[in-house]
Structures are given as C-alpha cells and as structure tokens.
C-alpha cells in the first residue's frame, strides 16, 4: 500500500494542482489510505484477528488493489505522442487531455466513496478498541520457556549434566555449543537450567534472546546491560559495540547464552564480541 500512497502523491504534483476539484479528491483518497496503511501495519503484529477485523482488513486490501489498477492504467495508457518520455512527463501529458481528466475524475469519485465507506465502517464498529486491546496480549513465547519447570521435560537432567561436564572440563579455551531442534522440545529451558546451575562459576554471565529478524546493535546492547554496563548510543556502529564487549571481557571468565538464534550470518557478527582469553 505504501507504493500506492506514493503514486497518489505524485498525482498531486505541480501540474495536477491546476485541477482543483480532482486534486481535492485525490488528496482525500491519499490521506484515507495512509491512515488505513498504518492500521494494517498494526494488525500485522496480532497473531489472531476476530472475523470482523479480518473482513475489514480484506476490504481495505481489495480497495487498494482497485485504486492501484486505476492509477496504473491511467499512468501507463498509450498516448498519441510516440516519443519516449519520463514517468512524470507522461503524467503531465495525460492531464493535458480533457478526456483523460474526465475519465480519471469519475473513477476517483467512485474510489473515494468506496474508501470513505470502508473508513466509516471502521469507526462504526470501533475496530481501534480491538486493535488496542489485542496489542497487549501479544506475548513472546520465549518468556514462558525461561520459567518452564525442568522436571516436566523428560530426559532434561541428563542433558544438563552433559553440557555442564563439557563446559567445565578444565580446558580454558573458548567453547561454543549449539542446542538445536524443532520448536517446543525444550531448548530454551535446557539452556536456562545450565545457566542457573553454573551460577557463581564465571566472572560474568548473560542470557539474551534474538529473533528471526535480529537487530544486532540492540542485541549487543542487551549483552552489555546483562553485564551491568551502560547501554551505548544508537549512533554508535556495530563495530564499536563489539569492541566495547571485547574490552569488558578481555580478562574475564564469561558465559553467554544467545537464545533463539536463527540466522547463521548474524552469529558470524555476534561471535566477534567474544575474545579467546584462555579463561
């Protein structure tokens, strides 16, 4: 929908401002669609929608498709001028044609009425209240995994002991272990149990969660916070974050858990924060 709003903005350019009535209709259409787009983006964060909200969302999408088809047909319709012209120049030529202006004006009127009705329907049924209410119940499932009772997972005790034995074998080289498996088998709970069991064995510890679309700077800042350090400014680049963590860990024995890491390329960056200091 953002591309559609951009196209409507182009149609409100200087040449189009000569046609005051059409300018007003397109401006209203653009404003309505901008608001609807913001609401659609909010709905993307809600896992399950009730039937009413889902139907409204579908109507907005259908209206957007209709409007984009109309705008594209107008912009790319054939002209008598065979010379190749740019995108903006072509739009200007269209509006010099009275017939084209009349046709697009009628279509814009119809589309504006359709969008306004969808917008009114949104207000009538108070969908904002539902969206606001729903936004408070979107819970990261990894949070509950941190507090899952380990006794409810069959065989976890043996895995905990095995990991602890491997981590504490006396070898002071940097160790990296991956816990892999399908969702829901207890990977986070296993890592958390090891983390708790090794309390007091390291100079500093951290446990942080990533996501399928990792924000590397935010993750590195969270590691610093876990160590009790200050969060770095967002203006600092990733390399500065990595250097600060390395500096802090240089003479320390440390234990860090990176939970829910999906992207190997993200790990290639994150691992640069952890120095081989033989502790």
UniProtKB/TrEMBL annotation:
Question: Is Metal-binding among this UniProt entry's keywords?
Answer: no
**One GO BP:** defense response
Q: Which residues form the Disease resistance N-terminal domain?
A: 1-83
Q: GO molecular function of the protein, one example?
A: ADP binding
Q: Does the keyword Lipoprotein apply?
A: no
Q: Which UniProt keywords apply?
A: Coiled coil, Leucine-rich repeat, Nucleotide-binding, Plant defense, Repeat
Residues in coiled coil: 19-46, 101-128
InterPro entries the record matches: NB-ARC, P-loop_NTPase, RX-like_CC, Rx_N
Q: Which residues form the NB-ARC domain?
A: 157-277
* UniProt xrefs under SUPFAM superfamilies: P-loop containing nucleoside triphosphate hydrolases (SSF52540)
What the record says about family reads: Belongs to the disease resistance NB-LRR family.
Protein known as: NB-ARC domain-containing protein
């Amino acid at each position: 929908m953002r591309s559609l709003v951009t196209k409507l903005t182009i149609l409100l350019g200087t040449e189009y401002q000569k046609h005051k009535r059409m300018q007003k209709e397109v401006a209203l259409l653009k404003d309505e669609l901008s608001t609807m787009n913001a609401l659609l983006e909010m709905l993307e964060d809600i896992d399950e929608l009730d039937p009413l909200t889902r139907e409204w969302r579908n109507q907005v999408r259908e209206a957007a498709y209709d409007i984009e088809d109309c705008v594209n047909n107008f912009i790319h319709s054939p002209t008598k001028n065979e010379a190749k012209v740019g995108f903006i120049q072509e739009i200007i030529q269209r509006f010099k044609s009275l017939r084209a202006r009349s046709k697009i004006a009628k279509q814009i009127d119809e589309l504006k009425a359709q969008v306004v009705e969808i917008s009114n329907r949104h207000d009538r049924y108070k969908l904002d209240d539902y969206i606001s209410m729903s936004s408070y119940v979107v819970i990261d499932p990894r949070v509950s995994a941190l507090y899952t009772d380990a006794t409810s997972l069959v065989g976890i005790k043996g895995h905990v002991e095995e990991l602890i034995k491997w981590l504490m074998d006396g070898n002071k080289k940097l160790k990296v272990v991956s816990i892999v498996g399908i969702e829901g088998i207890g990977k986070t709970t296993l890592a958390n149990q090891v983390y708790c069991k090794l309390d007091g064995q390291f100079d500093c510890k951290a446990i942080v969660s990533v996501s399928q679309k990792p924000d590397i700077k935010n993750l590195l800042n969270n590691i610093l916070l876990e160590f009790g350090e200050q969060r770095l400014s967002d203006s600092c680049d990733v390399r500065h974050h990595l250097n600060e963590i390395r500096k802090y860990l240089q003479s320390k024995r440390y234990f860090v858990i990176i939970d829910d890491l999906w992207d190997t390329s993200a790990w290639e960056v994150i691992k640069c924060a952890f120095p081989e200091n033989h502790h």
